[in-house]
Specification:
Distance between the termini: 78 Å
Strand order of the largest sheet: 2-1-3-4
Largest sheet: 4 strands, parallel
CATH superfamily: Nitrogenase molybdenum iron protein domain
CATH class: Alpha Beta
Order of helices and strands: HEHEHEHEHHHEHEHEHEH
CATH architecture: 3-Layer(aba) Sandwich
Shape: globular
Helix content: 25-40%
Strand content: 5-15%
CATH topology: Rossmann fold
Radius of gyration: 22 Å
Structural class: alpha/beta
Number of helices: 11
Number of strands: 8
Length: about 375
């Protein structure tokens, strides 16, 4: 009897050890779309932790203790890159020093587009010269390789030259601008660099699924088959979704509209419905009186059908921009701020973008 008890105890200990060895890595993701794509790859194996809470701006955020703890405990961190979340760079260096970090904007196959300049946008050529790693221009990274250049890639993306410390009106959190004269002095600053909102192109998202699966497979070989199968299934879903959205928004091509800030270039270029201008100079800036006057004149001159605001910005700014123009107001949510986190968030985000465009730009909008 004693030998049977010892044998049973030994078997239980072995099972516990095997389970511990097979436990998936602790994974953190910076924003909702990245979290969603990571959750799709990890489906059935584990769940990533979201660093940036829903509704918070990725362009400037003061981390809470729980968010810092998520980074401290992570084995693997997926983030867009410093161009989107510059405040996260130092946190990764200090809190996640032992974790592997993957900057998805640097992943193979990602098409990188530049920010557009001026109150109104000129027509753009979205050729192969904008692609990162032209050898993977079809949007598919190697399944058996981690994303080249993506690990610890903190130095490439100071894309928002005017975004931090050069806000057009120095908004103080209450939504009220102080010092319009000083604000107008900043209206002419260029919004240079690479547009980091690359997840809005489903072809980029497919490349990210490959990069996520490759990094997870490297960190957790025992579950590599599941990660790769999930990524392949996710890519097939996004391919079908891309075709669905393309057909849905095709009738909107050529309709002039204005966005709150130039953060939708990737979606517009993929689906051929491009904005004619932006209300705000950049992601972290509030438009000054001069820019509002210029954009209002431009909206009236082009007879723009719609001006889109975002859930996290005060609607009064967009309302001011459309005064006396006849343009309608719509809402675009580029990060899924009002959606439930999880693997379904990303495709829902893209569908909602298409629906919002149709609602405001369509003949019955």
């Amino acid at each position: 009897m004693r030998s049977k008890i010892l044998a049973a105890a030994g078997a239980a200990a072995l099972a516990t050890a095997t389970t511990a060895q097979a436990a998936p890595p602790r994974v953190a993701a910076d924003i909702l779309p990245v979290h969603s794509l990571t959750a799709r790859v990890m489906q059935g194996v584990g769940e990533p932790t979201l660093v940036l809470p829903p509704g918070a701006s990725p362009h400037g955020h003061a981390m809470r203790p729980s968010e810092a703890a998520a980074l401290e405990g992570a084995d693997l961190v997926f983030w867009v890159g410093e161009a989107l979340t510059p405040w996260l760079h130092d946190a990764l260096e200090t809190l996640a020093a032992d974790a592997r970090t993957v900057a998805l904007l640097e992943a193979p196959g990602v098409r990188r587009l530049a920010f557009r300049q001026g109150v109104t946008f000129a027509a753009h050529d979205h050729g192969d010269e904008h692609a990162h790693d032209a050898a993977h221009e079809d949007g598919h990274a190697h399944d058996d390789e981690p994303a080249h250049g993506a690990e610890h890639a903190h130095g490439d993306g100071h894309a928002h030259d005017d975004e931090h410390g050069h806000e057009e009106e120095h908004a103080h959190g209450d939504g009220h601008a102080h010092g319009s004269e000083h604000a107008d002095a900043h209206d002419d600053h260029a919004h240079d660099g690479v547009d980091p909102h690359a997840w809005l192109d489903p072809a980029n998202a497919r490349a990210w699924l490959d990069a996520i699966a490759a990094a997870l497979s490297s960190a957790d070989p025992a579950n590599a088959g599941a990660y790769r199968a999930n990524a392949e299934a996710g890519k097939a879903e996004l391919t079908a979704l891309e075709a669905e959205i393309a057909a849905e928004v095709a009738p909107l091509a050529g309709r002039d509209f204005v966005v709150f800030h130039d953060g939708y270039h990737h979606f517009e270029a993929r689906f051929g419905v491009e904005a004619a201008g932006a209300v705000s100079l950049g992601d972290g800036s509030t438009p000054g009186p001069r820019r509002l006057a210029e954009i209002r004149a431009a909206i009236a001159a082009m007879d723009a059908a719609c001006v889109f605001t975002e859930p996290q910005f005060p609607p009064r700014l967009a309302e001011t921009a459309v005064e006396g123009t006849g343009a309608r107001l719509g809402t675009l949510d580029p990060v899924g701020a009002e959606l439930a986190p999880g693997p379904d968030l990303y495709p829902t985000l893209l569908r909602n973008m298409a629906e919002s465009l149709k609602a405001c730009l369509g003949p019955t909008g």
